[in-house]
């Protein structure tokens, strides 16, 4: 799981305009909205859900390139998800494949 401070650090690298829109969905007061948004992400069930909440709540499932760049900049090369007898991988950092 990513900690509150790790998520906060990730969010600092997101475009301010995009963050303002995302935060205003939670509260018109910037500080209150940011706390609620951060808590929503941090309280996710697992690290994959935390990242998917960043994708959904801040990027609104848009701008995949920006999201991928954020993941790589945050040191997250990819994620894996096991389901039944298979493991699925999503690679954000193409550099690890070579």
Describe this structure in words.
- The protein starts with a helix and ends in a 7-residue tail after the last strand.
- The protein is 53% helix and 12% strand.
- Strands 1-2 form a two-stranded antiparallel ribbon.
- α2 (16-24) crosses α3 and α3 packs antiparallel against α4 (47-57).
- It has one domain.
- The protein is globular, with a radius of gyration of 14 Å.
- The model has no long low-confidence stretch (mean pLDDT 94).
- The protein has 5 helices and 2 strands; from the N terminus they run αααααββ.
- The protein has helices at 4-12, 16-24, 30-42, 47-57, 64-73, and strands spanning 78-83, 86-91.
- It has 98 residues and is of the alpha+beta class.
- Major beta sheet summary: 2 strands, antiparallel
- Rg estimate, integer Å: 14 Å
The strands making up the biggest β-sheet line up spatially as 1-2
Instruction: Tell me the structural class.
Output: alpha+beta
**Order of H and E elements:** HHHHHEE
**What number of structural domains do the residues give?**
1
Overall pLDDT, averaged?
Answer: 94
Q: What gross morphology would you assign?
A: globular
Strand content: 5-15%
Total count of helical runs of at least 4 residues: 5
DSSP strand tally: 2
Low-pLDDT regions? none
Measure the end-to-end span.
28 Å
